[in-house]
Write a structure and sequence with these properties.
alpha+beta, 6 helices, eight-stranded antiparallel beta sheet, 3-methyladenine DNA Glycosylase, Chain A
Length: 195
């Protein structure tokens, strides 16, 4: 996935990330999942965005070049994975909310502290779950280039196209929650919350 893919508005990038693969190189094993649910965040114009108050050391990735992982810690227990978008200097990102597991399911289950053959829906349906299942942390992955073919964390296009996309308000936030910026692959069994 070239960097120019991410140089567009969060809404455009979010919609077009559906169906792409997140690939994580974990101790020599490739773990992957298909993106089925995302949310767009619009930087300085969006009260729900981490960039709303301006650039800080914590959110600097959002203002840097597009196509980089922005990982944050929430509720004192979960990591969440975003990818930066917009041209450099403008803040925007897409939160990856859910994946359909594709490869490495037993390892994902182990990382989630579940039985080896746990239901796939329990592995990556939700932003915190998918980060656990892929062993994504802020310390190790914040600022990684997801456009680089040899990155430990990358997003790839295998040509899969969603049949239908639904748009809903974002969920799990207090500010600007009514904004229709959650994009899902309609009919997926792997969403964090069903339609």
């Amino acid at each position: 996935m070239p960097r120019r893919f991410y140089e567009r508005s969060p809404e455009t990038v979010a919609r077009q990330l559906l169906g792409k693969l997140i690939v994580r190189d974990y101790q020599g094993e490739l773990l992957s999942g298909r993106i089925v649910e995302v949310e767009a965040y619009f930087g300085l114009d969006d009260p729900a965005a981490h960039a709303f108050a301006g650039r800080t050391e914590r959110n600097a990735v959002l203002f840097g070049p597009p196509g980089f992982a922005y990982v944050y810690f929430i509720y004192g227990m979960y990591y969440c994975l975003n990818v930066s978008c917009e041209p450099e200097g403008e803040a925007g990102c897409v939160l990856i909310r859910a994946l359909e597991p594709v490869a490495g399911l037993e390892t994902m289950a182990k990382l989630r502290k579940l039985p080896p053959h746990a239901k796939p829906q329990l592995l990556t349906a939700g932003p915190g779950r998918l980060c656990q299942a892929l062993a994504i942390t802020r310390a190790a992955h914040n600022g990684l280039d997801v456009t680089c073919a040899d990155s430990l964390l990358r997003i790839e296009d295998d040509g899969h196209k969603p049949e239908r996309i639904s748009v809903t308000p974002r969920i799990g936030i207090r500010h600007a929650a009514e904004r229709p910026a959650r994009f899902v692959m309609e009919g997926s069994k792997f969403l964090s919350r069903y339609l």
